[in-house]
Amino acid sequence: MARRAERATEAVFVSKETAAARLEISIFTFDEWRKTGFIPAPHINRGQILRWHWPSIEAKILAERQSDEIDPCVLGVMNMQKDRQRTVTRKRPAPVSD
Length: 98
Hints:
By secondary structure, this protein is mainly alpha-helical. It has one domain (2-84): Orthogonal Bundle (Multidrug-efflux Transporter Regulator, Chain: A, Domain 2), CATH 1.10.1660. The chain is 52% helix and 10% strand. A three-stranded antiparallel sheet has the order 1-3-2. It is elongated, with a radius of gyration of 22 Å.
C-alpha cells in the first residue's frame, strides 16, 4: 500500500535530469542513449522545456532488453576499444655472441 501511494505522487513527465537520476546514470549517458534511440524522444518539446513520459522510457528499455540487440553501453565499449587499438611492434633482441 505504501508503494502504491508513493507511485501515485511520482511525476509522469520528467526532465532529463530526473530521468537520468531515476535510471542512476549521468546526463551524458542519458544523452548518448537518446542519440542511439535506446531512450525515446521527449514527449513535450516546447522551446527549452523538454519532458519525457516516464512509463514510455521504462517500456522502451524493457523492450530493448527482450530483443537480441546489443546493449548500448556494451556497444560503446566495443567501439571505444576499436578506436584505442594499437599495433605494437617488438624489436627482437640482438643475438648474444660470446
